Amino acid sequence: MKLIIGDKNLSTWSWRAWLALHSFNIPFVETVVLLDKPSTQKEILKHSPSGRIPCLIDGDLTIWDSLAILEYLNEKYPEKKM
Question: All domains of the chain, ordered by start, with CATH?
Answer without folding.
Answer: 2-80 (3.40.30.10)
